[in-house]
Recover the amino acids of this structure.
């Protein structure tokens, strides 16, 4: 007797479901590719701004080092204490009343670069409120193709007594803080695109 095998009928609509699944997958991949493609230039620009801010901070360090060396040699700097950043009050003090349990919220290491720059120039006129307590403030250093200073790129440099707030102090060393900044335009009030802070421990002979 010949046996006949019945053909298994494929459920209606299964092909349509498969097509929908494929389309959904392709749509997901397309959205992911579009997201990566559109965010790529933003990431690239952000990295470029960060590198430019680092270059600004490094330029500030080089300029400040030469300025301090020249000032010491010429006798214009008789003491580092005359040039430490101490204003606004507490910016150089890590703990209140020398109590390790009460950190000072105004200590410079607990502030962002933008907060520090605003505190140093509270009326936003482009000049430090206490010019004797900074080595450089918002100093431009890059020239454009026409030979003019490009005011979007600047550095600020000040020195900190790294023993401030404690009973001991070492006159042979200090902390140099260099902040590089990149803005969207030439004005101090223009949007900041990136900042970079360098902190360098400097040891020198007693003045």
């Amino acid at each position: 007797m010949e046996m006949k095998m019945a053909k298994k009928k494929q459920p209606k609509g299964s092909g349509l479901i498969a097509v929908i699944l494929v389309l959904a997958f392709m749509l997901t991949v397309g959205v992911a590719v579009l997201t990566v493609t559109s965010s790529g230039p933003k990431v690239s620009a952000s990295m470029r701004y960060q590198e430019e801010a680092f270059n600004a901070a490094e330029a500030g360090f080089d300029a400040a080092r030469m300025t301090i060396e020249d000032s010491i040699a010429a006798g214009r700097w008789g003491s580092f204490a005359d040039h430490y950043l101490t204003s606004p009050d507490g910016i150089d003090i890590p703990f209140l009343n020398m109590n390790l349990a009460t950190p000072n919220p105004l200590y410079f290491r607990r502030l962002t670069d933008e907060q520090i720059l605003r505190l140093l120039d509270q009326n936003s006129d482009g000049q430090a409120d206490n010019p004797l307590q900074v080595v450089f403030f918002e100093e431009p250093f890059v020239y454009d193709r026409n030979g003019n200073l490009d005011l979007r790129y600047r550095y600020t440099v000040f020195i900190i007594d790294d023993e401030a707030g404690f009973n001991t102090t070492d006159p042979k060393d200090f902390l140099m803080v260099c902040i590089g900044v990149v803005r969207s335009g030439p004005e101090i009030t223009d949007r900041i695109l990136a900042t970079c802070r360098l902190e360098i421990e400097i040891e020198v002979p007693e003045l």
Summary: The longest strand covers residues 192-203. Residues 44-203 form one domain.
